Amino acid sequence: MQLEPGKKIYFASDLHLGVPDYASSLEREKHFVQWLDHIKSDAAELFLVGDVFDFWFEYRKAVPRGFVRLLGKLAELSDAGIPIHLFTGNHDMWIFDYLPKEIGLKLYREPQEREWNQKRFYIGHGDGLGPGDHGYKFIKKIFKNPFLQWAFARLHPNFGIGLADYFSRSSRAKSGHKDAVFLGEDDEWLAIYAKEMLQEAYRDYFIFGHRHLPLDIQLNEAGSRYINLGDWIQYFTYGVFDGEQMQLMEYPLKGGSPVLWTDNKSAVQ
């Protein structure tokens, strides 16, 4: 696909709306909606790469309360003809058909490949990829089990959502602070995974979330890059591709125009 002149592809992940409390979550939601307003004039497509919500479970006749500003703005962008792509993450994997039906977005549960202007992208949330973390990979299989999802849906929403919210709040992913430690290129599991994928086929960019840490790592001499989108809890970072360059940007919570993310000690120069 060739981008129209002046159009851009945007990527964001890990809002974790709902934590740590209502007031701060609402502030971040309003800030993200402001960013959506900022990009809507030149957005060709929008990719939300997982964990938009800290917890989400759809009952057949009920969905979690809140997030009306975000959902309304996404519907507005979709109605304006901007394709929206939503990836489930490890916190909101129980999104089913409500958001695709009401907003018109496309839902993905596995990494996807795209190509714009002869640049190849590999896009996914990132959970369960790469070496290690066998405990989570086992739990993810449980959470994806259709019978267990059916059994959970038998719980009253007040109890079921409350119970799940309690466990979700106990996760280290709710704040991102413990994740904000660069492990080194040789130990960053998504960088390892990306290098393994490069053995199968060349990609220019690997775009992931989940890590809660903005990263831009050159993977090989050919220029392939692993970009982690950071989060909208601590960093307020996002990715943008303008047809020529892929950049990691920051939309400051305290106001001001977007700036290039530069606090990145992990980038290979």
TrEMBL record:
GO terms for cellular component: membrane. GO terms for molecular function: metal ion binding; UDP-2,3-diacylglucosamine hydrolase activity. Residues 8-213 form the Calcineurin-like phosphoesterase domain. GO terms for biological process: lipid A biosynthetic process. InterPro entries: Calcineurin-like_PHP, LpxH-like, Metallo-depent_PP-like. Keywords: Cell inner membrane, Cell membrane, Hydrolase, Manganese, Membrane, Metal-binding. It comes from the Bacteria. SUPFAM superfamilies: Metallo-dependent phosphatases. PANTHER family: UDP-2,3-DIACYLGLUCOSAMINE HYDROLASE, UDP-2,3-DIACYLGLUCOSAMINE HYDROLASE-RELATED. This is UDP-2,3-diacylglucosamine diphosphatase. The lineage of its organism: Bacteria, Pseudomonadati, Bacteroidota, Flavobacteriia, Flavobacteriales.
